UniProtKB/TrEMBL annotation:
Family annotation (PANTHER family): LOW QUALITY PROTEIN: ALDEHYDE OXIDASE GLOX-LIKE (PTHR32208:SF21), SECRETED PROTEIN-RELATED (PTHR32208)
Organism, scientific name: Streptomyces dioscori
Pfam families, alphabetized: Glyoxal_oxid_N, GO-like_E_set
The Galactose oxidase-like Early set domain, residue ranges: 609-701
GO biological process, one term: carbohydrate metabolic process
Residue ranges annotated for the Glyoxal oxidase N-terminal domain, each copy included: 262-590
Family annotation (InterPro entries): Gal_Oxase/kelch_b-propeller (IPR011043), Gal_Oxidase_central_sf (IPR037293), Glyoxal_oxidase_N (IPR009880), GO-like_E_set (IPR015202), Ig-like_fold (IPR013783), Ig_E-set (IPR014756)
Keywords of the record: Signal
Name of the protein: Galactose oxidase
Amino acid sequence: MFGRPVRRGPARLRRRTTTLIAVGALTSGLLLSVPQPASAANLVKNPGFETAGTGGDGMPYCWEKSGWGDNDFTFSTVGGAHTGSKAMKVELTRRTEGDRKALITESAECAPVVSVGKQYDLGLWYKSTTPDTSLTLFRHDTTAGWQYWTDLKTLPISANWSEATVRTPEVPAGTDRISWGVSVYGTGSATTDDYTMDQVADPIPDPVCTGTAEQCANGRWDVLPTQNPVRSMHSVVLNNGKVLLIAGSGNSEEMFEAGTFTSAVYNPVTGTYKQIPTPKDMFCAGHVQLDDGRVLVMSGNKGYPSADGTVGYQGYKDSYTFDPVTETYSKTNDMNDGHWYPSATILGNGDVLSFGGLKEDSTGSVTAERWSDAENKWLPLWQVNQTWSYWGLYPTMVLMQDGRLFYTGSHTFGNNIPGTGSAIYDYDANTTTQVPGLQRKDERDQSASVLLPPAQDQKVLTIGGGNIDSNPDANRLTDVIDLKSANPAYVAGPPLPQGTVDLGNGKVPQTGAQGKMYVSAVLLPDGKVLETGGALHNRANPVYESSLYDPATNTFDPVAADPEARGYHSSAFLLPDGRVMATGDNPGNGTWNHNVSVYTPPYLLKGPRPSITSVIDNEWTYGDTQRITVDRPIARAELIRPAAVTHSSDPNQRFVDLPLSVDGNNVDLNVTSNPNLAPPGWYMLFAVDANGVPSVAKWVHLQGPTALAAASGEAASGHVHSFADSLEGKVVAPGKKRAAAKVSPTVAGCDRHYGSANVCVPTVFPKTVKKTTAARCAWLKSNDYGPLKINGKDDLLRLDRNGDGVACGKGDGKR
């Protein structure tokens, strides 16, 4: 996997322990004996290294050594300074992994004091012989202590003294001091001098409400006048701002038998749809945007379950790409296995990994698949690492900053995988390590998981869920994990807000522990997460509730709810204009909601929006500085990867912070050097003002690892940190090779003895429904099921008491 060495387990951990350097606070009371060249407003002590330290390690006053990994290095105070007589040189002469840093000492005496919510302009002068240098920032949390914050800027090679400036993000809550300096993570050296730090003046215009007071507080939903013409359960935002809506057979056995497979492209600007010839039943396929903007669509539905339920769904091996320019599908080579409900995660080199799903014979696929970006094909089985594990259906696999995958515990249908329910998978080492803490891991069916803004923070939120096998009330659980921890574990988050639920006789307030499954979670350009839609039970009882989750405060704020039911097969996703579009609902009675809703968040009702008036170049490379112009001051800018969502799952959704260097209306954006934080492809670029109001997005193309070639002819690597390196969970190595995993044909939670394949009579009714024919038939009627044909001779749910072959017909509901 790109940019990541194979991990060797405990031996590597011992090596890290011996190579980590962290020098404590220096003796207090020292005075600066030499005048400093920096300005009087400068918050950095000893910014030119002119005052010697007393720690015995040769470091200047208020500066310390830090770093990790297997490398040979030197720290030295040298002459030839930018000003004065001294500069600091950090050099790596051999490197296998890790970095070395010269940082402001993490002490109350030396580390600059900061104010929550403020931003600071940082500057330094430097010379460098390696492209692998980064300005790295740490913060002191008043509760948790010192911790990594973010990488702000990659410093290009420079033989002569060059100035580098960058603006911090807003200081998070609980932070009182920061430390920063330059990391060197490749062979070569960086020499620095004359550090500066100044607080940014923050004239914030008062927001002007442009709607009603209710709308300005909670946003507004509008149901569009034109319905979605297809039963789309897959939504992919294309790099031209249009939306690909894939239905395939649309969960309709009649359409499948007729060979009627559909897709449409929606244009948000004109509000129009164009139906697209669709070559195969892509119902419940996997999908992801490739480096070049095409959409890779993998597997789909080869066949519906048999009428008696003895044969389940089947997945085919076929794979296609969709071209946004020609709006056509093209066939690729086949996958090695069938995968109905597969995962799809793009890697830092543009490859795609896929796991799980059902094979052509309805068994569970244990075959891992890898799409090669370089070869534009699925690799043969022998070229792909295999654990022979069954990951289930639509397992949410999030790419971590070091190239490993985090299985969040969100999945589709039934119980979770064995173990703790979440895990870290190391493709290179081909090992899986269990991660603890996920609450009620077997009731997270069609929960939603997102890598929280910004991606650099490496935190994941998991929301809600249920279980179609046992069919309890869906839950209000949320869990948050910090993958920057040495041994990360989920911790309980705040409970989901409750809304109203339609139990068949109108909407009533939710009570007790009632939450929702079929959750949609959407990253917004103001750094919050919109969670919306859902239902209380297996394909029944829609929940009307939406809220905004704020990662900075770990809180939910209830907002306006979508007026449309959005349960099974619904999707919600961000549009380039900052609104959120929601489609679909496919309850158990087989119907489909063709109405489309659009949410206008409160940030679009706060007055004029900032505008990106120019983007100098829309072809970006890792470690770049890219200039844009804006019409008024902005507080942040970010890249948001466009949605490719189905069944509450969009593992590639991410928000990547772009630290700013500001010169009036000219803003230089500093692009991460790490492709694992922002995998190659097309992104929406938003500029956001101090009130959280975003611009309309511009599209930029972030290129793959070949773009990292340095002037020296050597390829640069992303700055990878030593996060999640002390995992204590159970480690599972590859198991014995096998062909498949056994999976019940009732995996979808439907009893096929009743009705058609389109109709889902639950194998288990909600606990509030008595186990009598009358109660069950009453529940089915309240959820708009009509009379149901009995398939075969079995009536396991006792719905045909008079034996006329029709469930819940005349005379059946009296007992």
